Amino acid sequence: MRDDSDEMVWRLVLSGDSRRYGTIWDRHRDRIFRHLIASGHTPTSAEDLTATTFLELWRRRRAVRFVDGSLLPWLIVTARNVSRNDARGRRRYERFLAALPAAPDVPDPAEGFADRDDEHLVALRAAIAAAGPADATLLAMTAVEGFTTREAATALGLSESAAKMRLSRLRARLRTAVTAQPLPQGRS
């Protein structure tokens, strides 16, 4: 038996040298990944199934079989089994979803608020849309994201005084746009 064979490395893993598990991973992960890709899996799915295959290697660490000192054949068989189990699970899940009764067509209550023609909201949105991109970004960074005027100005390449002036003018335009609209019924 060679000193660098999978079997020797695995004996070291089982004797407590957990870092050597990485040696097995490094040696065989790409082959398992390519095998799963060749079996028709997407790269994302193949990555997940490769990880699951190596999880199975660890879970069944005392029962693995070597072929000429290599774990690769065992890993490939395990990858095929993991792939089949994944496909079976997906089919069961799809059957389960298909068997569920159709959800009643109930409108989302939030849509009533989002679609409401509140003149103040419409005017506010129009005023923000009419602002320049730098002003709108400055407003979002300070009012929504919580950045200080200095931080927002630096991010936008403005001086702090220029940012303060832009925000002051924008607030005045927003205030004018909103106060020009009559209050909706029931509000004061």
Automatic annotation (TrEMBL):
Gene Ontology MF: a single term: sigma factor activity
Record SUPFAM superfamilies: Sigma2 domain of RNA polymerase sigma factors, Sigma3 and sigma4 domains of RNA polymerase sigma factors
InterPro entries hit by this protein: RNA_pol_sigma-70-like (IPR039425), RNA_pol_sigma-70_dom (IPR014284), RNA_pol_sigma70_r2 (IPR007627), RNA_pol_sigma70_r4_t2 (IPR013249), RNA_pol_sigma_r2 (IPR013325), RNA_pol_sigma_r3/r4-like (IPR013324), WH-like_DNA-bd_sf (IPR036388)
Source domain of life: Bacteria
A GO BP entry: DNA-templated transcription initiation
Domain spans labelled RNA polymerase sigma factor 70 region 4 type: 132-174
Keyword Transcription: yes
Gene3D superfamilies: 1.10.1740.10, Winged helix-like DNA-binding domain superfamily/Winged helix DNA-binding domain
Residue ranges annotated for the RNA polymerase sigma-70 region domain, each copy included: 25-92
Record keywords: Sigma factor, Transcription, Transcription regulation
Similarity-based family: Belongs to the sigma-70 factor family. ECF subfamily.
Protein name as annotated: RNA polymerase sigma-70 factor (ECF subfamily)
Originating species: Cellulomonas cellasea
